[in-house]
Amino acid sequence: MTLFDFSAAITDEAYHADTWKARRPIKVVIGNPPYLAASTNPYDISAYKTETDGVTDFGERKHWLNDDYVKFFRFAEQIIDKNNEGVLAYVSNNGYLDNPTFRGMRGSLLRSFDKIWIVNLHGSANKKETTPDGGKDENIFDIMQGVSLFIGVKKTRLTNWAKVYYADVWGTRDAKLEILEKGDLSFTELKMDQKMAYFIPFGSDDKTAYDKGISIADLFPIYVTGIVSGRDEVAIAPTKTELSRRMDIVRNAVDDKDIMDLWGKFSRGQTAEKIRNDVLSDGVVTPISFRPFDNRWTYYSGNSCGWVLWPREKGTIGHLLAEPTSPIGQNIGLVFCKTSRTFFSPFVSKTIIAHRLFSAMCEITYIAPLYLYSENELVDESWSANINSDVYLALTQNLSAKPSPIDVFNYVYGILHDPVYCEKYEQYLCRGFPRVPIINDSNTKDDSSAFYVSEEMFNQYVAIGERLRKVHLMDIKVPVEVVLEPTMPDDMEIGAIKYKNGTLQLNRNTKIVGIPEAVWKYQIGGHQVLDKWFKEHRGQSLSIDSFTHIENMVGALTETIHLRDALKDLHK
Fold first, then answer.
1. Which of 23, 48, 386, 484 has the most CB atoms around its CB within 10 Å?
2. What is the pLDDT of residue 341?
3. Is residue 246 part of a domain?
4. Which DSSP symbol is given to 124?
5. What is the SS3 assignment for 561?
6. Do the Cβ atoms of 210 and 431 come closer than 8 Å?
């Protein structure tokens, strides 16, 4: 029996491949690269970590560019650039088409090729995509992520951006495959946005008007992403008492096994020793906004890979931990998303937040403290508004009186909940950080594509935004009629809930009556708020306090719907 020599075979294969490439350079690359968002496979993609100019660093530390398919794009692009001509044809994840973080990748591809054809096959279960008329849209593969085809052709050494031709394909899998087989595609040349270079139809007079507004990331320049605990079910507790019990187990552990038994498994970088040392350090027990209207407790020290896996920048998130009260009392933070899927109106928190507060759909959730605290030797405490002075002047330059920081916060909160504004600019709001209009900008008054905010409207946005903020913080409780049936139930355990016609079946024997359908369906971020709350608390028994909290949530959502209607009425 002769043993096959794999080493020799590979060496021989490599030799013949190198010889062929030396004689006939590779000019066509075809493939379906793998998708792996958290890939650690090494490959230099620094060329994609820029603005569309290919030079300016894009300034993002947390991004999805490490996905394997991105590395394959860069690899193939380099081959074709080296040969000064060629064709690249990939079936891939379609996330790079419009994700703001991938603008450097798109810019690089535009410089490398003369012409690019994009066939967007959609089919994203993550986005819950449907056809434009609301029909079923299926993926051509058995995966959750949407898919697209990329064909890039390079014939010259021109440095101008490529012309890009785009086609949508919607519908069932069979219908899509039939269209592809027949080549029955209708392409439209895209007008390239110089800043973002989207590979989808994007840009109009509305876009120009929207871009004149103020980015909330520029207005509130100090912001940070929510923490990643690494093990929510352990590191984040439902009560302060339960958190203390868990911390005592770690604090009093005889050996690592006690901590491992509590934790179940460690995330990368965590060890029992790091968690124990963290608990023994100078951290704080703090409430945390885990989900909308679902505050819990955690321990925060700022040390990575301890009780909390990724605590984010303590110098920023710490402004929501400081004991002294800000000029408005307890400090608050604006919670917002940066996502390419759908626009989420902001939320508000008095505490640190979890990174999935909005939903798993949201790429990154941020919180911007309204006030920043600093220790000052001359006074007991010193607070300053987290508002860029130049941006503030640009936003408010036409007002007769300069608004306070909390009024600016309320304006932003109000207008980003306005259904009319959100619907008009939805496709732009959901890409990058949302923008708000400059108040009383006379240049936009007669422009149908612009969103004009008079001084009177500004004051109304401030008033409604203030009430929305207080309702979402539950500083204002809105009374509602929600009752248990039977009145004195024996079984209060949250089971496999079912909602129908205003009645929530809590379990087989108990129901909650009086929840309007619009309230039950209401979403904050990607979460259907009440449904999410009950599912997160399944198996727990309702107490008087938790039932009161349910009433308060129903009241808050009812008032939110009412206030959003009031915002619509501003335009009548």
1. 48
2. 67
3. no
4. -
5. helix
6. no
**Strand positions, DSSP E, 229-291:** 236-237, 284-291
Report helix, strand or coil for 118: strand
d(CA 17, CA 15): 5
> Which range has highest mean pLDDT (48-62, 169-183, 351-365, 442-456)?
169-183
Domain total of the chain: 2
Is 26 a member of any domain? yes
Q: Model confidence over 189-221: pLDDT tens digits? A: 998 988 889 999 876 668 888 989 999 999 999
User: In one letter, which amino acid is 506?
Assistant: L
pLDDT of residue 361: 59
Could you tell me the pLDDT band of residue 506, with boundaries at 50, 70 and 90? very high
Q: Which residues pair with 485 in a beta bridge?
A: 511
Q: What span, in angstroms and rounded, lies between the C-alpha atoms of 122 and 136?
A: 11
* Token duo for residue 352: 């640190």
Q: What CA–CA distance (Å, rounded) separates 137 from 508?
A: 36
Residue 239 in tokens: 């009560």
Residue 517 structural domain: 483-561
Q: With 90 as the cut, is the pLDDT of residue 25 above it?
A: no
Q: What are residue 185's phi and psi, to 5 degrees? A: -120, 145
Q: How confident is the model over 96-124, as a mean pLDDT?
A: 94
Per-position DSSP letters for 397-417, written without gaps between them: TT-SSPPPHHHHHHHHHHHTT
CATH number at residue 86: 3.40.50
* CA dist., res. 205 & res. 210, Å (int): 9
Choose the final residue of a domain: 202, 225, 241.
202
| Per-residue confidence (pLDDT) for residue 324, from 0 to 100 | 74
**pLDDT for residue 418 is more than 80:** yes
SS in 3 state form for 141-157? Answer: CCCCCCEEEEEEEECCC
Tens of pLDDT, residues 519-535: 999 999 889 999 999 99
